[in-house]
Structure formats: C-alpha cells, structure tokens
Amino acid sequence: MNQNDWITQAGRLQAARKAFALVTVLRAQAPTSAKPGDKALVTADGQIHGWIGGGCAQPAVVKTVRQALADGHPQTIRIAPTDATAERTLGDVLEFGMACHSGGTLELFIDPVLPATQLTVFGDSPVARALVGLAPRVGLRVALVAEGALASDHPDAATVINNDDATRVREQLGSNGYVVVATQGRRDLQGLKAALAMAPGQLWFVASERKAGVLRDSLLAAGEDPDSVARIIAPAGESIGAQTPEEIALSVLAAVVAARRGRTTAQTQVPASSTVSASAPVLAETVAEVPTAGSCCAGKKKDEAAAESAATTTAAATPATPVAIEPASVKKTCCGN
C-alpha cells in the first residue's frame, strides 16, 4: 500500500461530497509498525487509505472516526496495552485498550473532513445573485436553481440547474440542507414547491409577511403538507435594516450562518405563532409585496409603526373632520412594491 494513497483518495471523496477523517499518528511507543507522522484517510464504512499501523488499532480508530463524522469534532485517542474492552477519557484524550497482545502504544489525532454545507438558492433575482456571490465566502457550497439560468452567469455557484421542476431538482440535489427562495415575483409558487420537495432543514422565503401568507395558502390549495408549509420562514433575513439587494442577501446569509452554527434566533426556527390557513386560497405566481422587516424595505418598518401609532393617538383625541386625501404615489422597489 502506498503511504500517500490517502492524498489521491481525499480528492476523490471531496469531489463526490463524501465525508472522511484524516488520522495522523502523533506518538508511537514500540513495538508498533506505525511511526509519528504516518497518516491515513478513514471513511465511516471503515475503509482505510494510507498507513497508521496494523489491524490492532483499527477497531478503535474506526469507532472514533464514526463519532467524529457524526458530531464534527476532532478527537485525540490513545491505544495502550490495557484491558482490550477498556475505554476511558483522560482529559481531552480518549483511551482504548489494545485489541492485540503485541503491546505498544499509539496516540492518534482524528480530524473529520465534512462536505461543505450546501445552500440552494431559487431564483435569478438581484438578491439571489448577490447571495450566490456571498455564500461561498463563508464556506457554503451553492446550488442555484432558476428557469433558464446559465452557468456562465453564476461563476460562484458550484451547481446551476436551469429547470425548477420539483422532481428534477430533488434528483440532482437530494434532500435536506438549507434553502432560500429569492424568486421575487418570478415563478414564486413553483420555486416554493420545488424547495419543499427537497425537505430542507431550513427554508427561507425572501418576501413580505403578506405575500408569504398568500403563497402559503396557494401551496396548501395545491396539496402541499401543512407542517412543511408552516416551516417556511418569511420574511427572510436577520433584522439589520437591509434595503439594497446586497444588504438583503447579507441579512439572509447571516440567518443561514446562525442556523449552521446552532444559534437560536427568529430566523432559525418557526415562530410559535406561525399558522397556516387553508381557506380562501389565492392561486398566483406573483403577489404584490407589502413592506415588512426582512424585505428590501425592512429599515422602514419601525418608522411606519411609529407613524401609525401616532396617527391613531391623534385620531382618538380629535373629532373626525372630513379631509380630502390625494392618491399616494407608488415607488417601485426591488421587492415589487
């Protein structure tokens, strides 16, 4: 066996998005066939590529590798000539008994190498494009799904799928992971259907509360699972007063990072008050937006609420007087208002 076999195999497994651990011999006390610095790549199914000694150490190594791949934490282990069934923790070192009678002691460092977390972005909107550009900078592997999308237009995306058919998307990308629907008025309903088909760990929708509510009703009318529909988080993005597409993408990315790191925020869990109604469905691909926190008009919500409160107080204290009101002008924004 070539002692550097693990280098070639590591590239293959990373290309296939398979998890493995790099195991390095830190210390070796004779008699052992391994030497400090020896390395091997070990997979969850027990395949060993490289050299970390004979078969005596392998059961303990494979067991620890599986645990490291499950929790993502590196681990130092010591295999010593004690009771073969012994297993104890000494500080930050996990010690195993040697399964053979040859003696010798090995200390190894097990470092899990996990595939980059995948973020799937639906849509070819300005927010979607900005998110695809930002996400790889924090170690996310991005897949973009948009009808008619060209890979050449999205160089930061590892995968570009130009068809948002739910079955095709799931076949190509699998299930779970993090998903953001940033269609922003173009094939919103289809994008949400395809996103739900992936059974994502978290699903964010870049839209106002009103628009999200209307589309939830449409999804229910189309037969989608109510529990899955209720898990859609909208408006998407941490509250940072985002207004431009790039700022909105940054706020959404912050929510994704929080979820990946196990942080609990309003953006990483479905609010307890979240309800989905199956009544009065509106079957629409595009619904006019109403500004709300998390949308491109997020920074205005607080001011609008204050103004509304002040108006209510004034109205309560002053007799009503008929006033002619000029029609309000409408300013188009990135969220369709």
TrEMBL record:
Domain XdhC- CoxI: start-end pairs: 14-79
Residue intervals of the XdhC Rossmann domain: 119-255
Entries under InterPro entries matching the protein: MoCofactor_Util/Proc, XdhC_CoxI, XdhC_Rossmann_dom
A Pfam family the protein falls into: XdhC_C
Protein name, per record: XshC-Cox1-family protein
Lineage of source species: Bacteria, Pseudomonadati, Pseudomonadota, Betaproteobacteria, Burkholderiales
